Amino acid sequence: MASSQYTLPPLPYAYDALEPIISQQIMQIHHQKHHQTYVTNLNNALASQASAMQAQDIPALLALQQNIKFNAGGHINHSLFWKNLSPPASPATDINASAPNLKKSIDERWGSLDAFMDAFKKTLLALQGSGWGWLVVRAPGQGGASGKRLEIVTTKDQDPVDSKDGTPVFGVDMWEHAYYLQYFNNKAAYVDGMWKVINWAVAEERFKNGIETSSLLKL
Amino acid sequence: MATSLFRTSTRTALRFGASATPKGLSGMTFARGKATLPDLSYDYGALEPSISGKIMELHHKAHHQTYVNNYNAAVEQIQEAQAKNDIAAQIALKPAINFNGGGHLNHTLFWENLAPKNAGGGEPPSGALATAINNTYGSLDEFKNKMNTALAGIQGSGWAWLVKDKNTGQIGIRTYANQDPVVGQFTPLLGIDAWEHAYYLQYQNRKAEYFKAIWEVINWKAVEKRFA
């Protein structure tokens, strides 16, 4: 445990692969700097936690929890985000071919894909401050629904999706660092562009089988 | 609503030095009962190289303007809800008032507590404020270090403020999430915007450099007036 460290996962595509929707410069800084900082700070916080446990210093342990949550959340959220994106016009960006089951559930839940996209955008643009927008799936019985149920949720800052709220299908980073160098204050245009780079194959897989925690979050 | 929330001041009070009010929101202006975007008392490029002209222009004309617009829209909705005695609707609008009204207040104070170097930006405080800072933090540099540590520790969007406690008269550093305004027990003296839009075009992820550079353009004279 003590010698293990979380590491920055490589992107499944090149830094410029999401252009023109997300610029190479944004991807590079976002991955190499922002995500790396969450990983570094998470490892540091966990090392401090190990020392505090060794010393049985409960006040120090408690003081570390928010730090761990923020940086672990940043690591989880970005790791999920990179994987649920795909280069524009790549096969995975075609929802009909890549996500038949998810598409059917979206149609049932919102009436149409367009209606879902509108609702998703509206929810994301209403975020006050830094955070994330998510499509989540709730298991049968969760939240009172009889079958699997899709919902749009937001999480603030780097809070990960609480398992009580469902399992992430895909996430969109609404921190300003995710779009500002290219879109400035026009975050609506950024959200509109995301539909060209959502990896529906990954979304379908998460919808059916949950998130890929085994590869994602192990040390 | 608006006038009970904020001190009304006139266009002539726009420039910080001309304010008839000794402290607080000298730039807070209204036209026909609506909040309006206050003019800056310096050019967009005047804070370079600490803050680029492009950042200042977007920050003022786009971001601050959006808070003003959304605040006015929320006030209109709350007035409609009041007219209908719809208490639930009024309560539901509170987050929008807090966020957009806070965004308007915070930015208005922020523009005023900045100044170009040739207009006194970065010149250290004097008088009672300097004494209070020395007594509380040991030195101005130590205060800046503490403020920068507070800024760096913000997880997400927000602000750090030097505040005065209305109960004790003591000064202190407090951070606020998102656009939460400094109201209630504390009086805002000096605010620094830690939202990414405040620095990202120039500093990207190197926010510590922004926090260091902004001290070159702090208008301590404005802070002294708020402290008085």
Specify the CATH homologous superfamily of the largest domain in chain A. Iron/manganese superoxide dismutase, C-terminal domain
Distance between the termini of chain A: 9 Å
Note the overall shape of chain A.
globular
Summarize the largest interface: chains and residue counts. Answer: A-B, 20 and 20 residues
The CATH topology label of the largest domain in chain A is: minor pseudopilin epsh fold
Largest sheet of chain B: 3 strands, antiparallel
Gyration radius over CA of chain B: 17 Å
Work out the helicity level of chain B.
40-55%
What would you report as the Rg of chain A, rounded to the nearest angstrom? 18 Å
EC number (chain B): 1.15.1.1
Enzyme class (chain B): oxidoreductase
Domain Manganese/iron superoxide dismutase N-terminal (chain B): 36-115
Function (chain B): Destroys radicals which are normally produced within the cells and which are toxic to biological systems.
Describe what this molecule looks like in 3D.
Chain A: Pfam families: Sod_Fe_C, Sod_Fe_N. Chain A: One of its GO terms (molecular function) is superoxide dismutase activity. The complex is a heterodimer of chains A (219) and B (228). With 219 residues, chain A is mostly helical. Chain A folds into 2 domains: 60 residues, Fe,Mn superoxide dismutase (SOD) domain (Helix Hairpins), CATH 1.10.287.990; 126 residues, 3-Layer(bab) Sandwich (minor pseudopilin epsh fold), CATH 3.55.40. Helix content of chain A is 51%, strand content 11%. A 3-stranded antiparallel beta sheet of chain A has the order 2-1-3, with helices on both faces. In chain A, helix 1 packs antiparallel against helix 2 and helix 4 packs across helix 5. The radius of gyration of chain A is 18 Å and the shape is globular. The termini of chain A are close together. The model of chain A has no long low-confidence stretch (mean pLDDT 94). Chain B has 228 residues and is an alpha+beta fold. Chain B has 2 domains: 95 residues, Fe,Mn superoxide dismutase (SOD) domain (Helix Hairpins), CATH 1.10.287.990; 109 residues, 3-Layer(bab) Sandwich (minor pseudopilin epsh fold). Helices cover 45% and strands 13% of the residues of chain B. In chain B, strands 4-3-5 form a 3-stranded antiparallel beta sheet. In chain B, a hairpin with a 5-residue loop joins strand 3 and strand 4. The two termini of chain B are 28 Å apart. The N terminus of chain B is likely disordered. Classes of the chains: A mainly alpha (219), B alpha+beta (228). Chains A and B meet through helix 1 of A and helix 2 of B.
